[in-house]
């Protein structure tokens, strides 16, 4: 669980939040950069495999004793919410738009048109994703406490988390949390989703006349 929720999955979240437009990308001339998607997918799959292994260990563990029930229930909650995140990712809806035109020439798609289905998915996936990440931290810390983890593990993990927090704060201050819709299709108002408010805290859209800062 430490490798899954302490390392791999937080990295996947950071990549998805801040690297939809990469530093060397010539946006808006270059759109729909798959870098963030590929690495988000790889990290989430790797982390999910580790999580499922942890879930199997939970299933093989006897009922919790009175002094470790908090960690036991936290582990269950994190695992079930993690599985729900995997399922929601599969159910994100269709893409559509000029980069995914149907055989009949239609650009219809849940994401491109920002249908109610897509909006519900984004609110759910983002809210649950950040919530379970915080919950997993509590599960990891209680587990380390129960197992009397060595000092080096505490220092290493807490140092790693502190570094992630610093990276998050830096990228957020540099306004790198760009809306997925705009990263894929640009800022032109002809795209229906650009008329809507971006979903998620701290998510921004770049102006149409955005110039890359060196």
Automatic annotation (TrEMBL):
Q: What top-level branch of life does the organism fall under?
A: Bacteria
Which residues are listed as membrane-spanning? Answer: 6-23, 35-58, 70-90, 127-145, 151-171
Give all residue intervals belonging to the Cytochrome b561 domain: 1-181
Tell me a GO cellular component.
membrane
Per the UniProt entry, the signal peptide is none
Cited InterPro entries: B561A, Cyt_b561/ferric_Rdtase_TM
Matching entries from Gene3D superfamilies are given as: 1.20.120.1770
Q: Which UniProt keywords apply?
A: Electron transport, Membrane, Transmembrane, Transmembrane helix, Transport
Localization, per the record, is: Membrane
| Database matches in PANTHER family | OS09G0557700 PROTEIN
Q: What protein name is recorded for this chain?
A: Cytochrome B
């Amino acid at each position: 669980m430490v490798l899954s929720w302490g390392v791999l999955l937080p990295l996947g979240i950071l990549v998805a939040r801040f690297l939809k437009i990469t530093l060397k990308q010539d946006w808006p001339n270059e759109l729909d950069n798959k870098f963030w998607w590929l690495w988000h997918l790889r990290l989430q799959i790797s982390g999910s495999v580790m999580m499922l292994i942890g879930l199997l260990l939970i299933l093989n563990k006897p009922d919790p004793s009175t002094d470790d029930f908090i960690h036991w229930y936290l582990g269950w909650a994190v695992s079930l919410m993690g599985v729900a995140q995997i399922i929601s990712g599969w159910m994100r809806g269709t893409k559509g738009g000029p980069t995914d035109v149907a055989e009949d020439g239609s650009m219809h798609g849940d994401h491109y048109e920002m249908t109610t289905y897509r909006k519900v998915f984004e609110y759910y996936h983002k809210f649950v994703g950040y919530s379970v990440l915080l919950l997993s931290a509590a599960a990891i810390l209680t587990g380390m406490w129960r197992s009397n983890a060595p000092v080096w593990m505490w220092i290493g993990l807490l140092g790693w988390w502190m570094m992630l927090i610093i990276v998050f704060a830096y990228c957020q201050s540099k306004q790198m949390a760009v809306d997925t819709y705009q990263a894929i299709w640009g800022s032109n108002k002809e795209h229906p989703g650009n008329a809507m408010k971006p979903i998620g805290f701290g998510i921004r859209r770049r102006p149409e006349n955005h110039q890359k800062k060196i």
